[in-house]
Amino acid sequence: MHIGIIGAGYVGLVTGACFAEFGIFVTCVDKDEQKIKSLKKGKIPFYEPGLDTFVQKNVAQGRLKFTTKIAKAVESSLVIFIAVGTPGRGDGSADLKYVEGVAQEIASHIDGYRVIVTKSTVPVGTGEKIREIISQNLREQTDFDIVSNPEFLREGSAIEDFMRPNRIVIGAKSAQAVAIMQDLYKPLYLIETPFVITNIETAELIKYAANSFLATKISFINEISNLCERIGADVHMVAKGMGLDQRIGPKFLHPGPGFGGSCLPKDTSALLKIAEAHDVHLGIIDAAVRANENQRAYMVQKIRDEMGSLKNKTLAVLGLAFKPNTDDIRDAPALTIIQGLQKEGAKIRTYDPVAMKEAARQIPKMKCCKDAYDAVKGADAVVLITEWNQFRNLDLARIITLLREPFFFDLRNVYDPQKMKAKGFRYFSVGRV
Ligand code: UDX
Ligand code: UDX
């Protein structure tokens, strides 16, 4: 089978490379010529463990091709995935101009039956909208089907998530389209992956509901962690005690500086907008979003309260990416927190293994350092924001001698409070005393 993927960004590229690994012939399209040029040479424009090997291998074996021309992919493919960005507009709703533009162009090249699939997270009703756009722009009259097949890829473990997913969601009207999609995912049938087959609107909503629920779980434990600090409880034990209840589950109950990334913040806001447009109030998700904003602000307040004024204090921020194993800083808590600290008059020295360059473009007034120890040198405090493995085993004896003051704010609860205090740090974490 041949498939086309429009948009060789994070989602498109992972999807394309993984389908090629399944033995399918894949043409990935992107309008960014520079990106396509480097992809042809096997260079990946972002950091995702294992993706380079997959891309290089499948390009070499002739199953993965890159082009800037949508026509090339549409002509040779039975299934065409739309995986272009759906950025948030100022008001939180998703901007569909790329999806709609791509749909129009696909239509103008269709010369026979095709299945057009949305992989991008799109507001409920977009599938139908694409159907209209395609019908109106067809060059010649032909049958086609629309499918919603949302992705559930976590950055940093996207390949594993694609190859061993918890489930595959397929939303479609036609039995033929469902059969083609099932055929495409045949290797996952063999490992007994559950398939959820439903209509397009339901599939579209599943993605938003899942991400909003995950966001809510994080905001929930973050609020509980704030209470823990006041009453002397340990949030990890609370999470453990809760999570062992199989109805709750242990995942996504790790407290921290708030959720970030390209999906959770954008999808929660977009779902609120979708509900608003239908006169439905989603109070829980609204609260989860506000709790997340409060959590970021609370991190700044906590540092200021413990250190007194931050004017002319130097803070060593370790970690900028919204989570480890990615260079993605979209909606990263570190950025908001750094800006908050700067507003209080603090100077920032920072280090992140891969996300520093892009972050420095957005926050020019911070000193990028060559490693964690360089960042800490002469600083008044360490602020650990992203739990990269290399920050989990810092040489603490060295850190304390490099610091001007022994403040250590561990916003991911990487270290043990008692041990840190015994080493002489003025140690603060989230939801533990
Ligand atoms: C995007 C969405 O933001 C997300 O909601 C969805 O679930 C999957 O798609 P991501 O893959 O991370 O996520 O986006 P991004 O890395 O920005 O990639 C989009 C790519 O599409 C870019 O490479 C861009 O150049 C390309 N593109 C965009 C096109 O080829 N044509 C267009 O018209 C617009
Ligand atoms: C998420 C979803 O997990 C994935 O299924 C979806 O398709 C895309 O969005 P991703 O954005 O890659 O994936 O990151 P994820 O691992 O979900 O983390 C999101 C944010 O939540 C990060 O900032 C992370 O640090 C934070 N987080 C996560 C917590 O603060 N506590 C937790 O317990 C889990």
Notes on the protein architecture:
The chain is α/β, with parallel strands linked by helices and 433 residues long. It folds into two domains: 197 residues, Rossmann fold (3-Layer(aba) Sandwich); 217 residues, Rossmann fold (3-Layer(aba) Sandwich), CATH 3.40.50. Helix content is 45%, strand content 14%. The protein contains 18 helices and 14 strands. Helix 10 runs parallel beside helix 13. The protein starts with a strand and ends in a 5-residue tail after the last strand. The site of one uridine-5'-diphosphate-xylopyranose has 20 residues, from helix 10.
Task: Set out the fold topology.
Layout: E1 2-6, H1 10-21, E2 25-29, H2 33-40, H3 51-60, E3 64-67, H4 70-76, E4 79-82, H5 97-107, E5 114-118, H6 126-137, E6 144-148, H7 158-163, E7 168-172, H8 175-184, H9 186-190, E8 195-198, H10 200-231, H11 235-243, H12 264-277, H13 283-307, E9 314-318, H14 333-343, E10 347-351, H15 356-362, E11 367-368, H16 372-376, E12 381-384, H17 396-402, E13 407-410, H18 417-422, E14 426-428
Parallel strand pairs: 1-2, 1-4, 2-3, 4-5, 5-6, 7-8, 9-10, 9-12, 10-11, 12-13, 13-14
Antiparallel strand pairs: 6-7
Helix pairs in contact: 1-3, 5-6, 10-12, 10-13, 13-14
The structure holds uridine-5'-diphosphate-xylopyranose (2 copies).
